[in-house]
């Protein structure tokens, strides 16, 4: 794609494998998948739907580790290469000035977003049902918890990596207390990370006849990537099959200054559950992206996604090709 500009810090050493010669898809899987096994910690039942970012000379992350009591916990981790992870055996203890907000119930599906010199963590936080918890860290050791962004019930809170219209900005997916058989993506802004407003509708599930993998509910995945063609967003979509929910993911482009305006959205999925580790596990048939690393100079992107609610996978692609795919298969 001519003259495409991709924002972000250079990451020439990011995890990467070239497209296999027999692969004709837009994205392909890491040959060493799953990159994080379910039992990396002696106490973990599963490690999936997790967030990683460049940090220092390597990477850091916040991981969803469900323990063997099947409690949903968040753990910090570090890696030199983005592949081999050292995850803290103890869950993160968030510092919070307000006891009521800081009272831990459960947390899952974290995202991590660097804005200026802070790393913001958003996650699905238990507070009379699921809502969006927010915290920041600068070292992945001490985490400062802020107010929940929204009223319950909400999931998939994903911040933008810079302020928009002078405000912090977040995508989210209002939901219910259970396994939510519906869901659209919304956009909200905040001047101070306490008060959120200017809520705007971004995207609804697609009509079944148009794109069935995303016809029941959708939710934003990794932190949006800023490009001259718009914000590139990977998002999951759900199909309600006769055998249960199936989670795939595709891509969309959102307007740079009005991100609630979707420019294009892929009809076909990029990745759907097909490999054994995506089809078999605690929740079969789930591919659920929560983080991406990218290198602006080469256009490479590596997406970390939860597989079958059990392990973590990695998929690769080239941003210009993904943008082209999104525009070519656009269903808007
Ligand atoms: C969603 C979330 C995700 C999970 C998915 C499939 O509602 O709970 O954490 O991966 O269901 O079970």
Overall spatial form:
globular
Query: How many strands, what sense, and barrel or not for the largest sheet?
Result: 5 strands, mixed
Beta-strand segment tally: 22
- Work out the count of structural domains: 1
CATH architecture: 5 Propeller
Note the run of SSEs as H and E.
EEEEEEHEEEEEEEEEEEEEHEEEH
Estimated structural class: mainly beta
Q: Could you describe the 3D structure shown?
A:
By secondary structure, the protein is mainly β. It has a single domain, classed as Tachylectin-2, Chain A, CATH 2.115.10.20. Helix content is 5%, strand content 45%. It has 3 helices and 22 strands. The chain has helices at residues 99-102, 276-279, 319-328; strands spanning 28-29, 44-55, 58-67, 72-79, 86-87, 94-95, 107-115, 118-126, 130-137, 143-145, 154-159, 168-174, 185-190, 197-203, 217-220, 225-227, 230-241, 244-254, 262-265, 287-295, 300-307, 311-318. The two termini are 21 Å apart. The relative contact order is 0.17. Beta-D-mannopyranose is lined by residues 49, 108-109, 179, 247, 283, 286, 288, 306, 309.
